[in-house]
# Entry
Amino acid sequence: MSAFLRPAASEEDPETSGRYRPVTSHFAIAPPVSVVIPAMNEAENLPYVFKTLPDWIHEVVLVDGNSTDDTVRVARDLYPQVKVVEQLGKGKGDALITGFAACTGEIIVMVDADGSADGGEIVSYVSALVGGADFAKGSRFANGGGTDDMTLIRKLGNRILTSLVNHKFGARYTDLCYGYNAFWKRCLDEIALDCAGFEVETLMNIRVVKAGLRVQEIPSHEFVRIHGTSNLRAVRDGLRVLKVILNERGTPRASRRRRTLAIAPAAGRGDVS
# Structure
């Protein structure tokens, strides 16, 4: 049994109560899990987002991007203990970096605020991490994943960019531009994020490979945004992603052969073995 997995503690057991967080009736986890949600004018979507979050998570960090609606008030009404952090810069990358710095958990999960992600999948991400992965990467195109939101043009662009990253950096990703991921907080020291926009997910995916971290893809289903419109612009942000790929130095082939990094097979949703 993993050092981080234990049979769920009985409420009457004073030695284990409070040390482990019950996930199901069969097991509990020790590492505290922080969920980071970058949000700008997402008041209408937050009820759907918070509804799916597991009750065993350690904290929710909401990064407010200078919202002009009731995003912050709604978040506090829904989750009184939410940690609200004001974003001083602009862009999703800047918001995530701000949120990561505010986390106190050992595991960090990134969740979008538009209602497109199912918080119930978090257990699969956490299970992959406590099972030995450093970075649990959501994939809409791994077996068991899917998307209701991507146009054919965006799918084609994502496929081309994914292939480029796989070729240049020796990765084996099935999805590149997806924002539902989880990782051990200690990984931040090795990937040193320094971008402000939507290209942040691509930068993370590249740098975890370059750092030799163990990656496991998690099948994930992306739903359509519930309310409002996305700030994502396919052409503009696609070009920014391409620029990141071209600017990052590829790993020499000799180094690739020496390194033992391999992306583990995607875990089934809810797999906690």
